[in-house]
# Entry
Amino acid sequence: MGRASSSKKVSRAASTGGGRTARGAKPWLWYTAMGLVVLLGVAGILTSRAERRDELASGADPTPPVVDRDHWHSAYGVYLCDEFAPPISDERDPKGIHTHADGVIHVHPFVRSAAGDNATLGLFADAVRMTLTDDEIRLPGGKSHKEGSTNCDGKPGIVQVQVDGEKVVTKDVRDIKFTDRQLLTIAFAPKGAELSPPPSQGQLDNLTDVEPSPTVPVPPGGEPVSPGGETAPPVGETAPPAGETAPPAGEGSASTTVP
# Structure
Protein backbone atom coordinates (compact mmCIF):
# COMPACT_ATOMS: atom_id res chain seq x y z
CA MET A 1 0.00 0.00 0.00
CA GLY A 2 2.83 2.36 0.89
CA ARG A 3 4.77 1.41 -2.20
CA ALA A 4 1.83 2.22 -4.51
CA SER A 5 1.40 5.68 -2.93
CA SER A 6 5.08 6.46 -3.40
CA SER A 7 4.90 5.45 -7.05
CA LYS A 8 2.02 7.88 -7.68
CA LYS A 9 3.95 10.78 -6.14
CA VAL A 10 6.99 10.05 -8.29
CA SER A 11 4.79 9.93 -11.40
CA ARG A 12 3.24 13.34 -10.59
CA ALA A 13 6.62 14.93 -9.99
CA ALA A 14 7.91 13.57 -13.25
CA SER A 15 4.90 14.94 -15.16
CA THR A 16 5.51 18.49 -13.82
CA GLY A 17 9.23 18.45 -14.35
CA GLY A 18 9.93 18.32 -10.65
CA GLY A 19 8.81 21.96 -10.16
CA ARG A 20 5.65 23.70 -8.91
CA THR A 21 2.30 23.26 -10.55
CA ALA A 22 0.76 26.06 -12.66
CA ARG A 23 -1.58 26.91 -9.79
CA GLY A 24 1.33 27.61 -7.42
CA ALA A 25 3.57 29.56 -9.90
CA LYS A 26 4.17 33.28 -9.16
CA PRO A 27 3.06 35.75 -11.98
CA TRP A 28 6.47 37.40 -12.42
CA LEU A 29 5.53 38.87 -15.81
CA TRP A 30 2.53 40.75 -14.32
CA TYR A 31 4.63 42.10 -11.44
CA THR A 32 7.26 43.31 -13.91
CA ALA A 33 4.67 45.08 -16.08
CA MET A 34 3.09 46.85 -13.09
CA GLY A 35 6.52 47.99 -11.91
CA LEU A 36 7.27 49.52 -15.31
CA VAL A 37 3.92 51.39 -15.28
CA VAL A 38 4.69 52.91 -11.88
CA LEU A 39 8.19 53.95 -12.92
CA LEU A 40 6.94 55.59 -16.13
CA GLY A 41 4.24 57.48 -14.20
CA VAL A 42 6.74 58.88 -11.69
CA ALA A 43 9.10 59.90 -14.50
CA GLY A 44 6.25 61.73 -16.29
CA ILE A 45 5.31 63.71 -13.18
CA LEU A 46 8.92 64.76 -12.55
CA THR A 47 9.35 65.84 -16.18
CA SER A 48 6.11 67.88 -16.11
CA ARG A 49 7.17 69.67 -12.91
CA ALA A 50 10.56 70.51 -14.42
CA GLU A 51 8.97 71.97 -17.55
CA ARG A 52 6.58 74.06 -15.40
CA ARG A 53 9.51 75.50 -13.42
CA ASP A 54 11.33 76.38 -16.63
CA GLU A 55 8.20 78.04 -18.05
CA LEU A 56 7.70 80.20 -14.95
CA ALA A 57 11.40 81.09 -14.80
CA SER A 58 11.32 82.30 -18.43
CA GLY A 59 8.54 84.77 -17.63
CA ALA A 60 6.08 83.24 -20.09
CA ASP A 61 2.40 83.38 -19.24
CA PRO A 62 1.25 79.76 -18.80
CA THR A 63 -2.49 80.56 -18.94
CA PRO A 64 -4.31 79.59 -22.13
CA PRO A 65 -5.70 82.29 -24.43
CA VAL A 66 -9.26 83.49 -23.94
CA VAL A 67 -11.84 85.05 -26.20
CA ASP A 68 -11.19 88.77 -26.59
CA ARG A 69 -14.12 90.19 -24.61
CA ASP A 70 -12.59 93.41 -23.27
CA HIS A 71 -11.60 96.28 -25.53
CA TRP A 72 -11.06 99.34 -23.39
CA HIS A 73 -9.02 102.51 -23.69
CA SER A 74 -7.61 104.68 -20.91
CA ALA A 75 -5.94 108.03 -21.49
CA TYR A 76 -2.91 108.41 -19.25
CA GLY A 77 -0.14 110.87 -18.48
CA VAL A 78 2.91 110.69 -16.22
CA TYR A 79 3.28 113.92 -14.25
CA LEU A 80 6.69 114.44 -12.63
CA CYS A 81 6.83 117.30 -10.12
CA ASP A 82 5.63 120.09 -12.37
CA GLU A 83 5.12 118.81 -15.93
CA PHE A 84 3.88 115.86 -17.96
CA ALA A 85 6.51 113.58 -19.45
CA PRO A 86 6.26 112.58 -23.13
CA PRO A 87 4.09 109.51 -23.77
CA ILE A 88 5.81 106.16 -23.41
CA SER A 89 6.92 104.81 -26.79
CA ASP A 90 7.57 101.20 -25.77
CA GLU A 91 4.93 99.11 -27.56
CA ARG A 92 5.66 95.71 -26.00
CA ASP A 93 2.51 93.66 -25.60
CA PRO A 94 3.07 90.39 -23.70
CA LYS A 95 -0.52 90.08 -22.45
CA GLY A 96 -2.68 92.42 -24.52
CA ILE A 97 -2.27 95.69 -22.55
CA HIS A 98 -0.09 98.19 -24.42
CA THR A 99 0.28 101.68 -25.86
CA HIS A 100 1.14 103.15 -29.28
CA ALA A 101 3.05 106.22 -28.05
CA ASP A 102 -0.29 108.05 -28.18
CA GLY A 103 -0.85 108.55 -24.46
CA VAL A 104 -3.55 105.85 -24.49
CA ILE A 105 -3.48 102.45 -22.82
CA HIS A 106 -5.11 99.91 -25.12
CA VAL A 107 -6.65 97.04 -23.18
CA HIS A 108 -7.71 93.95 -25.13
CA PRO A 109 -6.13 91.04 -23.22
CA PHE A 110 -5.60 87.63 -24.75
CA VAL A 111 -4.79 85.75 -21.52
CA ARG A 112 -6.93 85.24 -18.41
CA SER A 113 -4.29 86.75 -16.15
CA ALA A 114 -4.86 90.15 -17.80
CA ALA A 115 -8.62 90.05 -18.45
CA GLY A 116 -11.53 91.51 -16.51
CA ASP A 117 -10.60 92.39 -12.93
CA ASN A 118 -7.06 91.18 -13.61
CA ALA A 119 -6.46 94.07 -16.04
CA THR A 120 -4.52 96.46 -13.81
CA LEU A 121 -2.20 99.44 -14.10
CA GLY A 122 0.65 97.31 -12.79
CA LEU A 123 0.46 94.98 -15.80
CA PHE A 124 0.77 97.97 -18.14
CA ALA A 125 3.77 99.28 -16.20
CA ASP A 126 5.48 95.89 -16.44
CA ALA A 127 4.76 95.63 -20.17
CA VAL A 128 6.43 98.96 -20.99
CA ARG A 129 9.27 98.52 -18.47
CA MET A 130 8.11 101.34 -16.21
CA THR A 131 8.86 101.09 -12.50
CA LEU A 132 5.66 101.82 -10.61
CA THR A 133 5.25 101.18 -6.88
CA ASP A 134 3.63 103.01 -3.99
CA ASP A 135 6.85 104.96 -3.44
CA GLU A 136 8.64 105.11 -6.80
CA ILE A 137 8.08 106.05 -10.45
CA ARG A 138 10.70 105.55 -13.11
CA LEU A 139 9.99 105.83 -16.80
CA PRO A 140 11.87 103.59 -19.28
CA GLY A 141 15.35 105.08 -19.64
CA GLY A 142 14.56 107.88 -17.16
CA LYS A 143 15.64 108.74 -13.65
CA SER A 144 13.97 107.50 -10.50
CA HIS A 145 11.48 109.65 -8.59
CA LYS A 146 11.34 108.07 -5.16
CA GLU A 147 9.71 109.11 -1.92
CA GLY A 148 12.24 110.23 0.65
CA SER A 149 14.96 110.95 -1.90
CA THR A 150 13.35 113.18 -4.54
CA ASN A 151 11.92 116.64 -3.90
CA CYS A 152 9.80 118.87 -6.12
CA ASP A 153 10.88 122.51 -5.69
CA GLY A 154 12.02 121.72 -2.16
CA LYS A 155 8.84 119.84 -1.23
CA PRO A 156 8.86 116.05 -0.77
CA GLY A 157 7.01 114.24 -3.50
CA ILE A 158 4.81 111.17 -3.25
CA VAL A 159 3.42 108.67 -5.76
CA GLN A 160 -0.24 109.30 -6.48
CA VAL A 161 -2.65 108.42 -9.27
CA GLN A 162 -5.65 110.60 -10.08
CA VAL A 163 -8.52 108.58 -11.57
CA ASP A 164 -11.08 110.29 -13.83
CA GLY A 165 -10.06 113.74 -12.61
CA GLU A 166 -11.38 113.17 -9.10
CA LYS A 167 -10.25 110.24 -6.97
CA VAL A 168 -6.59 110.24 -5.88
CA VAL A 169 -5.04 106.85 -5.05
CA THR A 170 -1.82 106.63 -3.00
CA LYS A 171 -1.91 102.99 -1.87
CA ASP A 172 -1.79 99.88 -4.04
CA VAL A 173 -1.52 101.98 -7.18
CA ARG A 174 -0.53 98.94 -9.23
CA ASP A 175 -3.91 97.37 -8.45
CA ILE A 176 -5.95 100.13 -10.09
CA LYS A 177 -8.32 98.39 -12.49
CA PHE A 178 -8.92 99.61 -16.02
CA THR A 179 -12.30 100.77 -17.28
CA ASP A 180 -13.27 102.07 -20.69
CA ARG A 181 -12.55 105.77 -21.43
CA GLN A 182 -10.76 106.14 -18.12
CA LEU A 183 -8.49 109.10 -17.29
CA LEU A 184 -5.31 108.33 -15.36
CA THR A 185 -2.77 110.90 -14.16
CA ILE A 186 0.19 108.96 -12.77
CA ALA A 187 2.06 111.52 -10.69
CA PHE A 188 5.04 112.09 -8.48
CA ALA A 189 4.23 115.38 -6.82
CA PRO A 190 3.83 116.94 -3.36
CA LYS A 191 0.88 115.75 -1.34
CA GLY A 192 -2.23 117.76 -2.16
CA ALA A 193 -0.81 119.04 -5.47
CA GLU A 194 -3.38 120.12 -8.05
CA LEU A 195 -3.33 117.50 -10.79
CA SER A 196 -4.76 117.87 -14.29
CA PRO A 197 -6.29 115.21 -16.54
CA PRO A 198 -3.81 113.67 -18.99
CA PRO A 199 -3.03 115.71 -22.14
CA SER A 200 -4.07 112.69 -24.24
CA GLN A 201 -7.69 112.90 -23.07
CA GLY A 202 -8.82 114.02 -26.54
CA GLN A 203 -7.28 110.92 -28.12
CA LEU A 204 -10.15 108.83 -26.78
CA ASP A 205 -12.37 110.41 -29.45
CA ASN A 206 -9.87 109.71 -32.25
CA LEU A 207 -9.01 106.05 -31.83
CA THR A 208 -8.12 104.11 -34.96
CA ASP A 209 -8.87 100.65 -33.55
CA VAL A 210 -12.53 101.30 -32.68
CA GLU A 211 -15.34 100.78 -35.19
CA PRO A 212 -17.19 104.01 -36.02
CA SER A 213 -20.80 104.33 -34.94
CA PRO A 214 -23.38 103.88 -37.70
CA THR A 215 -24.62 107.05 -39.40
CA VAL A 216 -28.06 107.76 -40.84
CA PRO A 217 -27.84 107.82 -44.68
CA VAL A 218 -29.19 110.76 -46.66
CA PRO A 219 -30.62 110.05 -50.14
CA PRO A 220 -30.04 112.38 -53.13
CA GLY A 221 -33.32 114.19 -52.41
CA GLY A 222 -31.92 115.45 -49.14
CA GLU A 223 -34.37 113.68 -46.82
CA PRO A 224 -32.80 111.61 -44.07
CA VAL A 225 -33.50 107.90 -44.00
CA SER A 226 -34.23 106.11 -40.74
CA PRO A 227 -32.18 103.01 -39.82
CA GLY A 228 -35.11 100.79 -40.88
CA GLY A 229 -34.91 102.12 -44.43
CA GLU A 230 -38.01 104.37 -44.32
CA THR A 231 -37.82 108.03 -45.21
CA ALA A 232 -37.91 110.19 -42.10
CA PRO A 233 -40.26 113.20 -41.95
CA PRO A 234 -38.78 116.62 -42.78
CA VAL A 235 -37.31 118.64 -39.96
CA GLY A 236 -40.06 120.24 -37.87
CA GLU A 237 -42.74 117.74 -38.81
CA THR A 238 -43.75 114.51 -37.16
CA ALA A 239 -44.88 111.30 -38.78
CA PRO A 240 -48.68 110.58 -38.73
CA PRO A 241 -49.95 108.10 -36.13
CA ALA A 242 -50.09 104.44 -37.05
CA GLY A 243 -53.09 103.67 -39.29
CA GLU A 244 -53.36 107.20 -40.73
CA THR A 245 -51.85 108.82 -43.78
CA ALA A 246 -50.66 112.37 -44.03
CA PRO A 247 -53.20 114.78 -45.64
CA PRO A 248 -52.53 115.95 -49.20
CA ALA A 249 -51.03 119.38 -49.58
CA GLY A 250 -53.63 122.15 -49.13
CA GLU A 251 -56.17 120.13 -47.14
CA GLY A 252 -55.11 121.23 -43.70
CA SER A 253 -55.11 118.64 -40.98
CA ALA A 254 -57.72 116.29 -42.47
CA SER A 255 -56.70 112.70 -42.29
CA THR A 256 -57.88 109.51 -43.94
CA THR A 257 -58.06 106.31 -41.97
CA VAL A 258 -56.53 103.34 -43.65
CA PRO A 259 -58.82 100.33 -43.42
User: Anything to note?
Assistant: The CA atoms of residues 95 and 178 lie 14 Å apart. The first strand starts at residue 72 and ends at 80. Residues 72-205 form one domain. Confidence is low (pLDDT under 50) at residues 63-68, 213-219, 222-236, 249-259.
